[in-house]
Amino acid sequence: MAGLILSAPGSASGKTTLTLGLLRALKNRGTPIRSAKSGPDYIDPRFHAAASGAECLNLDAWAMDSDTIRHLAAGPEPLLIEGAMGLFDGAPPRGKGATADLARTLNLPVVLILDVSHQAQSAAAIAHGFATLDPSIKIAGLILNKVGSPRHDRMVRTALEPLAIPILGSILRQPNLQTPSRHLGLIQASEHPDLNAFLNQAADIAEQNIDIDALLALATDQTAPANLATILPPPAQRISVASDTAFAFAYPHLLQGWHAMGAEIQTFSPLADQAPPDCDLVFLPGGYPELHAGKLASNSTFLNALRCAPAAYGECGGYMTLGETLIDADGTAHKMAGLLPLETSFAKRKLHLGYRNLTPQGGPWNTPLKAHEFHYATTLKADGNPLFQATDAEATALPDMGLQNGKITGSFAHVIAPA
User: Fold this and answer.
1) 279 catalytic, yes or no?
2) Which residues, given as ranges, of the chain have pLDDT below 50?
3) Which residues are registered as beta bridge partners of 172?
4) CA gap 77, 339 in Å, rounded
5) How far is residue 208 from each of residues 96, 143, 172, 202, measured CA to CA in Å?
6) Which helix (H) or strand (E) holds 20?
7) 352 closest CA partner among 293, 398, 388
8) pTM above 0.90?
């Protein structure tokens, strides 16, 4: 496997836009390329897939062991990994799960994207710090982003010369190259009003301003390990997975792993009022059901079939859909499936964010799990038996999570891997 990592000193440096531009530029060239996203993220990988034409991986150095990461990353095409947040930013207290951990695990070089919009010569101090903080991390190249003018570019480049780190390109500020966002980040790729035009514009900017051949030449070759990945066993033999813009947050590595272990997986669309195909378990992933609550509440074919399912498991948005009532941001209450004694609301939003260690108390899982939580919903009522005992990334005890009502289970946690 040949690969490299695109990272930055912090968030909002332009990593996603530049990654998408590079992926689409390589696709337009006919150059085979794969991509991955560091950490727990459902939205960016869909943009990656649209840009490259190939499915994007999630590689999570907090939740996945090293063999699993190497197994998922292995492949014949070069792998371009987009980092999350800053290069060394991860879970407390010591930053486990940072993009830097992926660089160590996969022994890949890092191309650092520097947002120089509010600095000039000081960019050299930042680059020097990132290049020297950890000798095991190789900063193999730099891309200067949000450059104000040719004069500004010369000032930054002159300051960086003593570091002898190759500068692969400079990107002038692009105020028109923005992607719409909402409370969990970017809107979904399927909702972008003109995604191809956006991706092609990003590709043109990458082609014109980045030495893509030099960037690809930095990718190092790795060998996949002989050890097997640790795969979470499937929760049932026949699984019907909800899949549309309201339920889009299912990790491909889990579905692929379950399929490889012999599970039969089919998809359906609750928004299209489709009934789940005949199965042993209905899986409702997370997504944005709160934006479609009125439609979901009126989709009787979906809801009635869900109520008759032999078993159901919901994560985050799917969990809320299994409940009794979902109140949207306008304060309107919508009746959901009524299979769990749960009421949730977006009228008063509160951020819940972080990695989670889960110990199942029943339901489809019988092994400790690594997961994450990211939502703004407020729980108004949750009666009954919890599904998980939970701690955070620092092993601090949290309130029990989720609910179980016979074969109907769910929680706000998104499961990533077995512990």
Assistant:
1) no
2) 182, 184
3) 147
4) 45
5) 36, 13, 11, 10
6) helix 15-29
7) 398
8) yes
